[in-house]
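Q: How would the structure tokens look for this protein?
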Amino acid sequence: MFKNLNSVLISGKEVLPLIEGGKGVAVSNGLSSGSWAAAGGVGTFSGVNPDDYRDDGSIIRQIYKGKNRRERHQELIDYGIKGGIKQAQIAHELSSGKGRIHINILWEMGGAQRILESVLEKTKGIVHGVTCGAGMPYKLAEIASRFNIFYYPIVSSARAFKILFLRAYKNFIPKLGGVVYEDPWLAGGHNGLSNLEDPNKPEAPYERVSLLRKFMRSVGLDNIPIVMAGGVWHLSEWSDWIDNPELGPIVFQFGTRPLLTKESPIPKAWKERLFTLTKGDIKLHRFSPTGFYSSAVKNSFIKELMSRVEREFKFFLKTNSNEYLEDKQDIKLGNKKKSFLVNKKDINKILNLIKQGFKEPLKTPDDTFIMVEEEKAAEIKKDQTDCMGCLSQCKFSSWKDSDKYFTGKLVDPRSFCIQKTLQNVAHDNEVDNELMFAGHNAWRFAKDPFYSNKFIPTVKQLIDRIVTGD
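A: Here is the predicted structure in token form.
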């Protein structure tokens, strides 16, 4: 075993300081998390649209029949509860009492609190902790304490945890199992970059975690573990973190590496694609309908979103002001020949795009429009219409998980239906035209000798490898 990789108390039990990252839609499940726990670590299954199964073991795809968003939103919640209970049961059976089992919840997902409480109500004694990020989960501590399990907030800065602690967590310290520091420049999926941080200027995780520990010590949390998440590959690269008195107890979370295991539920095409990645193939972007930054493979799906922004133009309201007569011009666009007042300098660009097949204008909330192909325009509009409220607020469809069910803002065609694409990539064997989340170290699958000749390990083999440090 590498250096002094001692066991640590997590969720009431001594386990290896190795946690499986929970991830999102159906990507870490009962099979992967139960296997991780059985190997002596902490397995984390996703509580975000988890799969349920028929009696024959086939997946029940989440198809929505409701006539409106409110009805479809209730279907989404029902799917989430049934799937969460099923995955918890599978994980519990596979773990055979070893390790620990956690559920991962995204606070900004639609119906998050209702789903979490309902799953925990039906899985007492078999789920030991809950990790939660993607937003500010103020109610997390109270919910976990009520169900007598441990909670692990996911933050990307000391400032974020300080706000959560002072506002809500200080009254529920006994059930605080750890604080997950998820590096916003290295982790896959949604990232917690603030408006004060530059996405193009990564900051070293050591200094940021040191600040987090400094605050934790100031409020008596000296011995609560910090979970380092994002960018962790070989433990030998983190040797100065282990038994470091400045950082205190550190646990390591692996999100990307568990994707490539025999127990990982992702499709074969996704696993094969991981072997082909090179450095720079993961893009930190802000197309997500959550409004958060996120990291994903720069495939055709991401490139199409990038190209939409390149086909974006400003338009103006018509007034009698002379300024609009000098450098503005009317142009009729799309099948409906809608009139747009645009900058004269943009006319030729727009006409050239029309010649290339980008004939339809779609308005954004920022007094701009993007030019897209007619087929893509129809797809975008259908996806917006079919919304089932998978987020607490969605800029793509303007859904809001509240009494009004509407954000009050215009839909944004520069984004996408995240529920649709994440369900597709998790269950279908097509990865190039779907959103494929990955951490920024995913390119290392192709370089790490452990994966030579496209070797795919079991979870046990992966953990055995990790504890060697290599």
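The chain has two domains: 8-299+437-466, 301-417.

The chain has a mean pLDDT of 94.

Upvote if useful.
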